[in-house]
Each structure stands twice: as structure tokens, then as C-alpha cells.
Amino acid sequence: MKPAASAGSAPHRLPLLQGLLPFSSAQLPHDIVAGITLAALGIPEVMGYTKISGTPTVTGLYTILLPLVAFAIFGASRQLVVAADSATAAILAGTLTAVAALGSKEYVGLTSTVALTVAVMLVFARVFRLGFLADFLSRSALIGFLTGVGIQVAAGELAGLIGLAKQGHGPLMQIVSVVQRVAEANYPTTILSIAVLAVIIGCKRFVPRAPGALIAVIGSIVASGVFDFARHGIAITGEVPGGLPSLFLPPLHTNEINQVLATAASCFIVIIAQSAATARAYANRYNEKGDDNADIIGLAAANAAAAFTGTFVVNGSPTKTEMVDDAGGRTQVAHLTTAVIVLLVLLFLTKPLSLLPAAVLSAIVFMIGVKLIDVKGMTELYRMQKDEFIVALLTVCVVVFVDVMHGILAAIVMSLIAHARNSYHLRTRVLTRSPAGQWVAHRVEPNVLAAPGMVVYRFEADLFYANAGRFSEEVLRLVNEASAPLRWVILDASEINNIDYTACKTLIQLGGELDRRGVGFATVALPTGVRHELERYKALRAQDIHREIFATVDAAIATLSNRSATAPPSAPGASAG
Length: 577
Known about the structure:
By secondary structure, the chain is an alpha/beta fold. The protein is 56% helix and 6% strand.
């Protein structure tokens, strides 16, 4: 009889509240402090994201209210913070403006529709186990994508920093537009922006734990009320609705469905990739078992909550997760604390928010954009992996010169191309025995023999339709260019993890070609590797020809050394193919 499970372990089996349970009273004070810290740092940030997404300021606060609660209930990660994110906000602004004017009622409704569509996609991803799609967005492509988004975001706020209206399509035209109109700058707004940037950068450098953005927000609100900024030509946010968000069903018109689906698909890929990577990193840091499937459901619930409360797509945020972790938060209690504080702000403090100068949000968003530009990551890629640097750079260019949606598509396509290129590139060796009796790998060249008349050819990659032809050509070259006729070609398949149908057919054809040349063909494959695939496809069996699969190179050499290619085998150490 199995012992009864302890009460402490029972919560781990619950499908809900995995990010909250088991509850630790000792950790509670740290989580509360972390939640307060997240609110202090996150509230100005999510308000800034509304400038990127083109939605009302209050919708930023909505992203860290019910979506936080929904993920805390349905998600599994104890650390991941789910809220507004610059990348997905930029995707919305870069795609939905094709069907609705930025900031219009129709546009805001569409952002909620996209959030609901993303939630449905995430549910399908969970049901059909599509979480692996995140792995097709490589780290290098993600660096390039986020860097491009950072350039786009920062360039888009330059006009706001000096009190001008945004003009021009794309980052380059926006920068050119600001340079051409710099003489028209509003000087009070410019001075305020410089002061805000100085506070944010100064706190970051000299007092890293101080909430520079929050200090700038509070200080500017007080100054705006005292000195009446609006009367001096400094634009302010204006009325911010108070109270709880209204619940409603996002609208959808058939003529907009294609744009909504395309936008949601782009957001979906970013959400899956960024959230999974962040959740896994923190689970590993604290030696906790992650659950990607539960996190996908949590993300779906969070986006559904965003959709029904009139706000836009939410995502697992690496920056906010790091904020909480740095402040000592270890469970979703921290995030619930933040949600409570946001609720209090919505109920009692929206009137002061109406005095917030627009330039302050521009400065905050500008700094967000600058932070996304990953110079360190790009430099590291250039130094360590130049081909992946090219992938990242091309992704940056697509985001900057075309748009964000095509940028994410380019990131995915180039990630797949890079993967296919690496798999296609042959990693092959021929083996010889050293004086000490060890097998030594050499570059593939003719006449490098493992034993008289025998070549051992090792293939160190999966064998599939794209590289099977090159594999066959290289083996035949070894045979054709040998100074003396070969008796056996031994394929060392111990490093191969997968052989597809095309590759197996190629093996059969290769065996036939070697037979016509009077050369035997054997293979080395492990029971845990591709041996069962070879046997299933009967790739090493041809009419009237016996082929063998050996467990080791030594066994193959010992058995075949004194045997011709056409002699029927009967060695006990080998198994018939």
C-alpha cells in the first residue's frame, strides 16, 4: 500500500493556483513588497505602452488588473508576470491601422478583438500541443526582432519629446520629420522631457532600486497641478476614466477578420516564444518544475480577461518578471498585490493621472525603446556567430524598413532557414584506429581506411530529405576515388537521431550502387538510436544481398575484415537487417 501523500504536496496536483500554492507565510512579506515594487515601476510603464499601442491611457492599467489575476489562477509559473508588452503593442499599432484609425473607437475595439483571438489560439495551442512552435523563433532572431521594435518605438517618441505631432511612416521618416521641424519645438515641453529623462537615467545609474519612472510621474503631476502646465502649452493626458473596467464582448466585422487573424498570429508567436523562455529561465533558477501547457492556459485566460475588459494583448514580460524577482518576489502573491494597488489607483487616483504631461509618457516610452535595442546581444552575435548575426540584422531591417508584423514573419522564416542550413550542412568524418587502439575522426577524404579495404564513414547529423543526396554523393566519392578497390563501406549511424522516408530510400539506392561496384554496405546503429527505423524501412536489405547492423564499429570491423561483400554471413555478434 502506498503511503498517503502529505498535505504539503497535495497542492502541486491541483490544476489551478499552481503559481500560488503551496503557500508560505515566511515568503508573504517579500511577495507583498515585490508587488508594491512592481506597481511602482509597472504602472508608468504600462501607461507608456498605450502610446505604442494607440489606445487610451487607462487601458494600460487594465492590463495589470484582471489579466494578472487570471494568470495567477490558471498559470503554473510562480514568477512570470503577464501584462502589457512593448513588442505586442507595436504589432497592434503596426497592423491594425490598415483597417481603423489609430486611437479611434473602432481601433480600440479591434485591439480587444485581437486579444480574444489570441486567447482562442492559445487554447488551440494547448489542445493540440503546439507549444513547440516557440522553439522555431531562435534567440538570434528574437534579439533582432526586439532591437528593431526598440528602434521603432524610440523613433516614434522623438516628436513627443519636443512637443510636436508625430509625422512620417516608419522610424527613418519619423526621425527625418523631427529633424526638419526641430525649430518648431515647444521649449517648455522639451525642458520637461529632458528633466524626466535625467531623473530616469540618474536613478538607474546611481540609485538602481529607486523607481525613477514613478518619481518622474508623481513629480510631473504635482508640478502640472501647481503650475498649470496646460496653460503654458504643455499637453497633458486629460481625463482618465475611474472605476472598474466595463465587461463587454469585443466586436468583429467580417471585412476585418483577415487583418485580425494576421495580427493575432503575430502576437501569438511572440507571446509563446517570450513567455515560455522567461518562465523556463526562472523555473530553472529556483529549481522548480515548469509546466508550459498550464502556462499557455494561463496566458489564454489572461488575454481573455484583457479582451473582456476592453484592453489589448498581454504577454509574459521579461522586464517585469525581473523587477519582481529582484525585489524578492517568488510567487504570484506579488502579482495579486500589484493588482490590488492598481484597483485602488483606478478607484481613487485617476483624477491626478489626468494632469500627467504627455511628454512624460513619451520620455518613459522612449527609454523603453532604447532598452529594447540590444547592442550587447548584437555585438555578442557578431563576435561569436556571424551567420546568426546576419539573421538578427536582417530581422532588424525588416522591422525598421517594413513593419513589425513582417518582422516577426521574417524572424520565424529566417530561424527556420538557419535551422535547415545547419541540418543540411554535412558534419561527416572517417574513422581510423590510433596506435593506442582508439577510434580517431578525420576529415572526409579518400584512402583514409579503418582497415585494409574498409572505410568507416560517420554521419553526425539527422539524415533527411535535404541532405540525403549529399550524403550519398560523399560516400560514392570515397568509393570512386579510392586508390585500391574497397571491400566494405561501414556507415557509423550512432550520431544520427532520425532518418526520414526520403533518406531511407536513398540508403536503399546507395546500397544498390555499391552492390554494382562489388562493395559491401554495413551500418553501426544503437538500439536507442535509429536502428529500429532502419529495420522498419528495411533500408539495408536488398534482394539476394545480406546486410548487417552492428552495435559498435569494433564489432563491424572484426566481423567483416575477412569477409567479401558477397559472402553470406553467419557471425553470431551481428543481427540481420
